[in-house]
Specification:
Order of helices and strands: EHEHEEEHHHHHHHEEHEHEEEEHHHH
Number of strands: 12
Radius of gyration: 19 Å
Length: 329
């Protein structure tokens, strides 16, 4: 790990000014960036510590929305009464992330900025990975692709995004509030992450100097009745093979509205837009009908050699999330 300088700005404006400069990176909990530095993925010349900037660790809920500051710790958000009661999928996703020790350190903004766990990206000895080094190839295309994407990938990259809570936030129509040299803007969670394209090294739409300052989640019945399902190789401290977050609004036992996003299947949380429309009017307990409602979205799934099991696993995770959210599981 190369040497670097370190600074603690007192204001958000100072932090934005500093991180706009080449070679400067922001750090908060450090649970992700420090690993990048150890593995040679990132070599910042200067680190800007955001932890002393006031007002970025809030967790507030009013009658319209939940607002989560970028510096709020994952464990604090998971335990917050409003999150647990009115946005349960968010709390569940956080509690299934990492370990308790890491959740006490890791921030919400940092969690959204995680990079893929693809073994070619994370390798100690550099391997072909277009996300890590442009034009080096995608080792997973002809190599280990068990964790590879079902949707949205291409010959340049089949990596998947690892965040659990990003899946829940995507399903619940959250926005990310960012601030940079050009001012503040809101980005829908569905638009935060880029498709791989020919140069997949920049996974988000954030511009130079832009920092996540908050996450906004609207109140809704689908948020109140929501659930997160995570399927992984082992019971703890493991990233998802597939995951699903769902929220439902019911009229009796019939679905009036639904929201679904999948994790572990694409470069970003993958929203099932066609299914959300097809689910309207179906009985929440009718598993077969729910499965048929997912067919249009899954028609575009492109599994690789070693992950042909993932489409069916993802379907079942989505149905379980829906039925648990709706009280039918």
């Amino acid at each position: 790990m190369q040497t670097f300088s370190y600074a603690r700005p007192a204001t958000l404006a100072d932090a934005i000014d500093a991180t706009s400069q080449a070679g400067t990176w922001a750090i908060a909990g450090g649970t992700e960036l420090v690993n990048w530095m150890k593995e040679g993925i990132a070599s910042p010349r200067r680190l800007i510590d955001l932890n002393h900037i006031p007002g970025l660790d809030l967790i507030e809920a009013d009658d319209r929305e939940l607002t989560i500051g970028a510096l709020a710790r994952m464990s604090d958000v998971a335990a917050h009464p409003s999150v647990r009661n009115d946005f349960p999928a968010i709390s569940e996703a956080l509690l299934k992330s990492a370990s308790a020790q890491l959740r006490n350190m890791a921030t919400m903004g940092g969690n959204l900025m995680q990079r893929t766990r693809c073994p070619y990206f994370r390798a100690e000895a550099e391997l072909p990975c277009n996300m890590r080094r442009a034009s080096s190839g995608c080792g997973a295309m002809d190599g280990e692709d068990r964790a590879g994407a079902l949707f949205g990938g291409n010959a340049h990259c089949i990596a998947t995004h690892p965040s659990d809570v990003a899946v829940a936030l995507t399903a619940l129509d959250a926005d990310v509030v960012v601030q940079g040299p050009g001012g503040q803007r809101r980005i829908a969670m569905t638009a935060l992450y880029r498709v791989p394209g020919e140069t997949p090294g920049n996974p988000t739409v954030l511009d130079a100097g832009e920092l996540i300052v908050a996450i906004s989640v609207p109140r809704s019945q689908t948020a109140r009745f929501s659930h997160y399902v995570k399927i992984r190789e082992r019971a703890s401290y493991e990233f998802a093979l597939v995951s699903a977050a769902a929220g439902v609004a019911l009229d009796g036992e019939v679905i009036r509205a639904a929201r679904i996003a999948l994790g572990g299947v694409a470069h970003k949380p993958w929203r099932l837009n066609a299914a959300e429309h097809a689910l309207q009017g179906l009985a929440i307990a009718d598993s077969a009908a729910l499965g048929r409602a997912l067919e249009e979205d899954f028609a575009s799934a492109r599994p690789g050699r070693q992950n042909a099991f993932k489409p069916e696993l993802a379907r079942r995770a989505a149905i379980r999330a829906l039925q648990t959210a709706g009280g039918a599981a």
